[in-house]
Design goal:
heterotrimer; A alpha+beta (528); B mainly alpha (372); C alpha/beta (391); A: alpha+beta; C: GMP Synthetase, Chain A, domain 3; 2 domains; nine-stranded mixed beta sheet; four-stranded mixed beta sheet; 31% strand; globular; Spore germination protein KB (chain B)
C-alpha cells in the first residue's frame, strides 16, 4: 500500500485495526451504522479522520421525503470516470419511486446491480468493512433510510506501464517485466499459462498495511505438502507492514541467518512460468515487481532464462562461465592475497618479477591494499545505484580515472591489486540473480582475511565451512544443494550444462513435483 | 546431531574412500618393500575386506548400535564400558595423530614459521563448525570433497604423465628380495593403516541407510581406495625411484614437486597440499566424530554436541604435545602404534567381540531349542 | 553457547597473527634468488656461496608495467654448510632471501674436483623451498662466482644460462640439463654415475661489444665418479649420453661426401635399447639404436633420389652415431665411471648377477664388451630433392 496511507491511518484511527476492534452489531454506539444518511457519512468520515482525499458526493433525489444518495470514494484510488458514468448517471436518472421499491427489495444488490454498470457490487452493513473497502478504492453508495451500504468496485490506481526488466535482462527472450500492481503481474503469468490448473490463492499479511499476497502454483504439478507448508508459514507472519517481497522472504525462509538466498526473487514473468512448470510456487506481493519463487536450489541462481532461449551449446558454455565467474568473484581476492603473501613459490618467475616490481614503493601491506580497494569499489557501486542520474558521468569518471589510474600512477596501490579488484567486480555482475552475488560479495572478505592470515590452507578450510553451510541449508525442507549433494546423476542434465530440451523429458526433481514427466510418456513429441 | 541420520550408499562410499586415502597417501606406504611397495597394498585390500567383514558381522547383530554400545551388551556392562572407553581414547588419539601428521606436513612444506598449534586450531575450528552442522552435512560435504579431489588429482596425474616424469623401469626388478619384505610390510603396518582404521566405521555403520548398502558400498570403498593407493604407489615409485622414496618424508610432495611443464606449470606441490588437506580434514573429522559419539553413548548424554568443544581442544593440545619432534612422532607411529594400539583395537577386540557374540547366540539358540 | 565458543575460537585464531609466528611476507620484503653458485675455499675448508638475485626495481609510480626489469644483484657469503652461508649472507641482504625461484645451481671447478659433490645437494632435498628439479652445472676451469658474475647485456644472467642449457640440449643434443634430483639419484645408485654439464667463461668475440667483455659458454659434460669430477666428455662424445638415455630430441650429423664437402643430416628422433648380461665376469653390453632423420643441407652433387645414395647416407649416419656412442663409452670406461647406468640395467635385467658384481662394478664396467647396432632411416630431404647443380 502507498505509504501516505499508512502514516495517516496509524495516527488518526486505530479502530481500523481488524484484530483489535470487534464490531458489535446490536449495540448502538459510535461505530454502528444508522438509518440516517448524514450520520453514516459522518461516521465514515470520522472513522478515517476526514482526510482531504476522501470524496463525498451527495445527491438529493427527493427533497420532500428527504431521500438522498451519497457516494463516498477515495480520490486517486478510484476511477472517477467510471463513478460518473456508471454509478452517478444511472442512479440520478432513476426516479425516486423506482429507487425506493428496489431498495426495499430483499435482493436489492442484484437489482441495483442491473442499474449500476460496474464489475462488482456488494452490500455491506459493517462500518469497518465499508471503510476498508473504500480504502481499497471502491465507491460506497449510501441511501437514505437504510443501513445498507453498497460498494461498487471502481478501484483504479495509477500504475506504471509494463517496461523492460531492469535487473534481469536478456538478449533473446521476452522483454516484459512485472510491475507494482499485483493483478497485472498475475495476468502476465496467466497469459503464458492458459490452463485451468494454474491456481491463485489470496493470502494476507501486514497487520496495518493489509497487503495482498497471492500464492500461485500449478495444481497437480506442485507438491501439495510444500504448498501446505507455504500457506502455514505465510499465515504465521507477524509484521505490521509489508513493503516488498523481501519482507515475506525473511519470514518464510528456512534458515534465518544464512547469507545465501533460499528463495528466488525475479521480475521476469518467464522465470516464474518456468519455475511453476517445474513444480515450484510463486508468491506475488502487491507493490513490488519482485516475485518470490520457492523452493529454490543453489544451482537455480546460476540459471538464466537465456540459457534456454539460446542454442544449448551456448547455454551450457555461458552457464559454466557463470560458475567460473562466481568462483572468481568469491575467491580471486583471497587467493591473490594468499599467494602474494604466503606462497611466492607458486608465481611463475617472470610474473613474480613483474609483480615484485609493482609492489616496490607501494605504502600499504597487500591485505590492507586489497581491503581498501574492495571497499572503495563497494562504495563506488553503492554510489552508482543511489546517485542522481545527472551526476552519473562525474562519478564514473572519478571512479575510473582517479581511483584506478591515478592511484596506481601515484604509487598508492599496485596495478595488480586494481586488476584483481576490477576482475572480481565484473565477475560479480555475471550472476543472473543478484542476491547470490551479494553472498559472494560478503564472503569474499571472509576469504580474503583467511587468506592473509594463513594462506591457501585458510582459504581451503574456509571453503569447507562455506560448503558445509550450503549443504546444511534447506529451502522448504528440501536440500539446497540438490542435485550436487546428494548427488543424482540423472539430475545433472540442467546443472552445469544444459542438455537440449527434447532430452529433458523429466522435470528437475529438486522441487519434488508430483508429475515426473513434462509430457506424457510416448506423448505427442514425435507426432508433429 | 539428529537421531535419525541416514546416509546413502554413494555418500558412504565417499567417506570410506577419502578416509582410507587420508594419511596413507601422505606418507607413502610399505616403504620397506622398496620397489615392490605396491604388492603389500594390493594384498592389504584382502586383509581390509576380512577385517571389514568382522565389523559388518558385529553390525549385523546390532544394527542400531555403535561399537561402544554393543561391547557392553556382549561383554557385560563393566568390561564392555571399559572397552568402549578404550575406543573413545583410541579414536581421540588417532585424531590427534592424524592432526599432527598434517600440521607437520604444512609446517615442513609451506608454513615454516607458523606454529603447529595455530595450524591445528584452524583445522579443528573448521571441523567443529562442520560438526555442529551434523554428520549428514558432513557426509554430503565429503561427496563434494570427492569431486574436489578428482578435479585436482586427475589433472595432476595428466600433468605428471605429460611431464615425462614416469620411468616404469624404476619398478624393476620385481620381488628382488623375495616375499619376506613384502609380508613384513603387509603385516601389521599396511593392514592396520589404512585398512584397519576402518574400525572407526563400527561407530558410523548404524547411521547408514541399511545393512545391504553398508555391505555393498563398504567393500566397494575399500577395494577402490586400495586400488587407488596401489596405483598411487606405482606412480610414486616410477616417478622418484625407490631411494628417494625411502629418504623423503612426504614422497608424494617430492613426486609432484618435480612436475614442470614449460615455465608456467611448476611447483605443483603447493597445489597437491589442497588434496592432502581435504583428505586430512575427512580423516580427522571421522575419528573426532567417533570419539564424540562414543562419549555421548558411554555417558548417555542427550546432547553429545556438548563434548565437541572440550574434545576438540583436547585433540589440538594432544596433537602438539604427543611427541617432541616429528621424527619421534613418526617413530611412534611406525613402531609402537601398529603393535600396541592398532593390533588390539582393530583386530583382536573386534574379533573377540564377534566370537563371543556368536557363541552367545549359539548358546541362546541351543537353550531355546532344548525345551522344545 | 555454541556461538560464543566459536567467537572464542576465532579470537584464538587472531592471536597467532598478533603473536607474529606467521608466514605472512610481503613481496617487497623478500629478495628472490635466481641462481646459486657453490665454491670450495680450500684454505679455509669452507663453502663460498654466490647468490645471483633478481633485483627488484620499482615500477610503481611510473605507470608502466614492470616487464623486462630484470636487474641482477650478486652477493657472496661463506660458511661450513650451505645453510650457514645463506644465513651469513643476511648481513648483506636488506631483505629476506627467498629460494623458491632458484633456477640454476653452478658448482665451482675446485669443489667438483677436490671436494666431493656428495654432500652439497642435501639442502635441495631437505628444504621444501628450494626445488630439486633445477639444473646443475659445473663451472669448468673457473669458479661458480665467476660464471654468475658474467652479466649479459639483455637478459638476467641466470635466465641466460638457463636458456643456453635448454637450447643446447634441444637443438644440438650435446648438453643435457641434469637436474639435481637426478644427480642425487645417480649418486646414491651403485649402478650409475652422474654427468653434469660444464660452463665456462670466455672473452666475447662479438665485435659490437666492448673488448674484453665476458660471456658464458656451455662446454662438455663432466664425468663424475664417486662424487668427484674425473673427466670431461667433449663435443660429439657427449651425444652418447643423450642417445643412450633416450633424451635426444634433435641433433645433426655431418656426413662427408667427398673432399672437404659435407652433407648435414638432422636427426629428428632416436630410440635406444640396451641389454646387459655377464659373460664370465665381463659385462656384455648390447646397444640398439633406432633413429630417424632428414637431410637438411647438401653440399655435394649427389643423386639422392637413387636408393643406393640414400642408403649410403643412412649407413654413414648410422656409423657416425655409433662412433659417438662408442667414443663416449670408451671415455667412460677410461675413467671407470658408469655414467650410462649399465649397472642399473643389469640390476633390473639380472638381479642375481648384479649382486655379485655390485661392490666392484666400476672395475667390472671398465672391462665390458660393447656392441652397438644403429639403424638409421632417412625419411625425407626437406623442400628439395636434388641440390642445385654446383659447378
Amino acid at each position: 500500500m502507498p505509504s501516505f496511507f499508512k502514516n495517516k491511518k496509524t495516527k488518526t484511527q486505530t479502530t481500523i485495526d481488524s484484530s483489535s476492534s470487534k464490531p458489535s452489531n446490536g449495540k448502538q454506539d459510535e461505530t454502528t451504522l444508522t438509518f440516517e444518511i448524514d450520520k453514516n457519512v459522518q461516521l465514515i468520515k470520522d472513522c478515517m479522520g476526514n482526510p482531504p482525499d476522501l470524496n463525498v458526493r451527495k445527491i438529493i433525489i427527493d427533497a420532500s421525503s428527504d431521500f438522498s444518495i451519497a457516494m463516498i470514494r477515495m480520490d486517486g484510488m478510484s476511477d472517477k470516470k467510471e463513478v460518473d458514468f456508471s454509478v452517478i448517471e444511472p442512479l440520478s436518472k432513476l426516479n425516486f419511486q423506482e429507487l425506493r421499491e428496489q431498495l426495499d427489495n430483499p435482493n436489492s444488490a442484484e437489482v441495483l446491480g442491473r442499474l449500476i454498470a460496474v464489475n462488482k457490487l456488494e452490500k455491506m452493513n459493517n462500518l469497518e468493512k465499508v471503510v476498508k473497502s473504500i480504502l481499497q478504492g471502491n465507491t460506497a453508495i449510501l441511501f437514505s433510510h437504510t443501513q445498507q451500504i453498497f460498494l461498487a468496485s471502481t478501484r483504479l490506481i495509477d500504475k506504471r506501464g509494463l517496461s523492460e526488466p531492469t535487473s534481469q535482462t536478456v538478449i533473446r527472450g521476452p522483454k516484459d517485466s512485472f510491475t507494482e500492481d499485483l493483478r497485472t503481474n498475475t495476468s502476465l503469468v496467466r497469459a503464458r499459462i492458459t490452463n485451468p490448473k494454474l491456481r491463485i490463492e489470496t493470502l494476507n499479511a501486514g497487520e496495518i498495511t493489509h497487503t495482498n499476497i497471492e500464492l500461485m502454483y500449478l495444481k497437480g504439478i506442485a507438491n501439495d505438502s510444500i504448498l501446505q507448508e507455504v500457506r502455514s508459514r505465510i499465515k504465521k507472519i507477524k509484521i505490521d507492514a509489508i513493503l516488498e517481497s523481501s519482507y515475506i522472504e525473511e519470514f518464510i525462509q528456512d534458515s534465518k541467518n544464512s547469507i545465501f538466498p533460499t528463495l528466488i526473487s525475479t521480475e521476469r514473468p518467464d522465470v516464474v512460468v518456468a519455475n511453476l512448470l517445474e513444480g515450484r510456487f510463486a508468491i506475488f506481493v502487491y507493490g513490488t515487481p519482485y516475485v518470490l519463487i520457492g523452493p529454490a536450489t543453489f544451482i537455480q541462481f546460476f540459471q538464466s532464462p537465456e540459457d534456454y532461449y539460446q542454442n544449448y551449446y551456448m547455454g551450457s558454455f555461458i552457464r559454466i562461465l557463470r560458475f567460473v565467474a562466481f568462483f572468481i568473484a568469491l575467491y580471486i581476492p583471497g587467493l591473490y592475497v594468499a599467494i602474494m603473501t604466503h606462497h611466492h613459490a607458486l608465481i611463475p618467475t617472470t610474473l613474480l618479477i613483474t609483480l615484485a616490481g609493482q609492489r616496490e614503493g607501494v605504502p600499504f601491506p597487500i591485505v590492507v591494499e586489497a581491503l581498501i580497494m574492495e571497499l572503495v569499489f563497494e562504495v563506488l557501486r553503492e554510489a552508482g545505484v543511489r546517485m542522481p542520474r545527472a551526476v552519473g558521468q562525474t562519478v564514473s569518471i572519478v571512479g575510473a580515472l582517479i581511483l584506478g589510474q591515478a592511484a596506481v600512477e601515484a604509487g598508492f596501490v599496485s596495478a595488480s591489486t586494481v586488476i584483481v579488484v576490477s576482475l572480481t567486480a565484473i565477475a560479480n555482475f555475471t550472476m543472473p540473480f543478484f542476491n547470490v552475488a551479494i553472498a559472494a560479495r560478503i564472503l569474499r572478505f571472509f576469504l580474503l582475511l583467511l587468506g592473509s592470515f594463513i594462506g591457501m590452507y585458510g582459504i581451503l578450510l574456509g571453503t569447507f565451512m562455506i560448503l558445509a553451510h550450503l549443504c546444511s541449508l534447506r529451502s522448504f525442507g528440501l536440500p539446497y544443494f540438490d542435485p550436487i549433494t546428494p548427488f543424482k546423476l540423472l539430475e545433472q542434465k540442467d546443472v552445469f550444462i544444459r542438455l537440449p530440451l527434447p532430452k529433458q523429458r523429466t522435470r528437475p526433481q529438486p522441487a519434488r513435483p508430483e508429475q515426473k514427466f513434462r509430457v506424457k510418456r510416448g506423448g505427442s513429441q514425435n507426432e508433429t | 546431531m539428529k537421531s535419525k541420520i541416514k546416509i546413502g550408499g554413494l555418500q558412504f562410499f565417499c567417506l570410506i574412500f577419502l578416509f582410507e586415502l587420508g594419511s596413507a597417501v601422505l606418507f607413502g606406504m610399505a616403504k620397506e618393500a622398496k620397489q615392490d611397495a605396491w604388492i603389500p597394498i594390493l594384498l592389504g585390500i584382502a586383509g581390509g575386506c576380512i577385517l571389514f567383514s568382522v565389523y559388518l558381522g558385529l553390525h549385523k547383530r546390532y544394527p542400531d548400535l555403535p561399537l561402544t554400545s554393543y561391547s557392553q551388551q556382549i561383554l557385560g556392562k563393566y568390561l564392555g564400558w571399559v572397552i568402549g572407553f578404550g575406543y573413545v581414547v583410541y579414536f581421540s588419539y588417532l585424531a590427534a595423530r592424524v592432526l599432527r601428521d598434517f600440521e607437520e606436513l604444512l609446517v615442513i612444506s609451506q608454513y615454516h614459521n607458523t606454529s603447529l598449534l595455530t595450524l591445528g586450531l584452524y583445522m579443528i575450528a573448521s571441523i567443529i563448525y562442520v560438526m555442529f552442522k551434523g554428520f549428514e552435512v558432513f557426509s554430503r560435504l565429503s561427496q563434494i570433497c570427492l569431486f574436489l579431489f578428482l578435479f585436482t588429482a586427475l589433472p595432476i596425474l595428466l600433468l605428471e604423465v605429460s611431464a615425462q616424469l614416469l620411468q616404469p623401469e624404476n619398478l624393476l626388478p620385481l620381488l628382488e628380495n623375495g616375499w619376506s619384505p613384502v609380508i613384513k610390510a603387509l603385516f601389521p603396518s599396511t593392514i592396520s593403516v589404512p585398512f584397519g582404521e576402518m574400525v572407526a566405521f563400527t561407530m558410523l555403520l548404524p547411521l547408514v541407510k541399511d545393512y545391504k548398502t553398508a555391505k555393498r558400498f563398504g567393500y566397494l570403498g575399500i577395494i577402490v581406495s586400495g586400488l587407488y593407493l596401489t596405483f598411487r604407489t606405482l606412480m610414486n615409485i616410477a616417478a622418484i625411484g625407490t631411494d628417494a622414496r625411502m629418504r623423503s618424508t612426504f614422497p608424494v610432495l617430492t613426486e609432484i614437486g618435480l612436475v614442470e611443464i614449460g615455465d608456467f606449470i611448476q611447483r605443483l606441490d603447493s597445489l597437491i597440499l589442497i588434496i592432502l588437506v581435504i583428505l586430512g580434514f575427512v580423516k580427522i573429522f571421522i575419528f573426532f566424530y567417533c570419539a564424540v559419539l562414543g562419549l555421548g553413548d558411554l555417558f548417555k548424554l542427550k546432547k553429545p554436541d556438548k563434548m565437541i568443544y572440550p574434545l576438540g581442544i583436547l585433540i589440538i593440545f594432544t596433537s602438539v604435545f604427543i611427541a617432541p619432534n616429528f621424527n619421534t612422532h613418526l617413530e611412534i607411529g611406525f613402531k609402537i602404534v601398529p603393535i600396541y594400539l592398532h593390533l588390539p583395537f582393530q583386530m583382536a577386540i573386534p574379533i573377540i567381540l564377534l566370537l563371543v557374540a556368536l557363541i552367545k547366540s549359539k548358546i541362546k539358540k541351543s537353550r531355546t531349542k532344548q525345551p522344545n | 553457547m555454541k556461538r560464543k565458543c566459536l567467537v572464542i575460537l576465532v579470537l584464538f585464531m587472531f592471536t597467532h597473527f598478533l603473536g607474529g609466528c606467521s608466514n605472512y611476507r610481503e613481496l617487497r620484503d623478500a629478495v628472490f634468488i635466481a641462481g646459486l653458485g657453490i665454491d670450495w675455499i680450500k684454505e679455509k675448508k669452507r663453502y663460498e656461496i654466490t647468490f645471483q638475485a633478481f633485483s627488484p626495481t620499482s615500477t610503481a609510480g611510473t605507470g608502466s608495467a614492470g616487464a623486462g626489469s630484470t636487474g641482477s644483484v650478486l652477493y657472496t657469503a661463506e660458511g661450513r654448510t650451505i645453510s650457514e652461508a645463506a644465513r651469513q649472507a643476511s648481513k648483506k641482504f636488506s631483505r629476506m632471501p627467498d629460494y623458491s625461484h632458484v633456477r640454476i645451481v653452478v658448482i665451482g671447478d675446485d669443489l667438483a674436483k677436490a671436494e666431493s659433490l656428495n654432500y652439497i645437494f642435501d639442502v635441495f632435498e631437505r628444504d621444501a623451498n628450494i626445488r630439486a628439479n633445477i639444473p646443475a652445472l659445473i663451472a669448468r676451469g673457473t669458479s661458480a662466482k665467476e660464471v654468475l658474475s658474467v652479466i649479459p647485456a639483455t637478459e638476467h644472467p641466470v635466465q641466460s644460462i638457463n636458456g643456453k642449457v635448454r637450447n643446447s640440449s634441444k637443438m644440438l643434443g650435446e648438453n643435457e640439463a641434469t637436474e639435481i634430483y637426478q644427480i642425487i639419484n645417480q649418486l646414491t645408485s651403485t649402478g650409475t654415475e652422474p654427468t653434469i654439464g660444464g660452463i665456462s667463461v670466455i672473452t666475447s668475440e662479438n665485435p659490437t661489444q666492448p673488448p674484453g667483455t665476458k660471456e658464458t659458454k656451455l662446454r662438455g659434460m663432466g664425468i663424475i665418479k664417486e662424487g668427484k669430477l674425473v673427466g670431461w666428455l667433449d663435443g660429439t662424445k657427449s651425444k652418447s649420453i643423450l642417445f643412450l638415455n633416450n633424451q635426444m630430441r634433435q641433433t645433426n650429423e655431418s656426413i662427408n661426401c667427398g673432399g672437404h664437402r659435407y652433407t648435414s643430416v638432422r636427426i629428428t628422433s632416436s630410440k635406444s635399447k640396451i641389454k646387459v648380461h655377464m659373460n664370465t665376469g665381463k659385462p656384455e653390453i648390447t646397444i640398439h639404436v633406432d633413429a630417424l632423420g632428414i637431410v637438411d643441407e647438401m653440399l655435394c652433387n649427389r643423386k639422392i633420389m637413387e636408393y643406393d645414395v640414400l642408403h649410403e647416407y643412412e649407413k654413414k649416419t648410422a656409423g657416425n652415431i655409433a662412433k659417438h656412442i662408442q667414443d663416449g663409452i670408451n671415455e667412460a670406461k677410461k675413467q671407470k665411471s658408469d655414467i650410462f647406468g649399465f649397472g642399473d640395467i643389469l640390476h633390473r635385467q639380472h638381479p642375481e648377477e648384479w649382486k655379485k658384481y655390485e661392490s666392484r662394478w666400476h672395475d667390472v664396467f671398465a672391462k665390458s664388451k660393447v656392441s652397438i647396432h644403429v639403424n638409421f632411416i632417412l625419411h625425407g630431404t626437406s623442400m628439395r630433392v636434388e641440390p642445385y647443380p654446383y659447378k
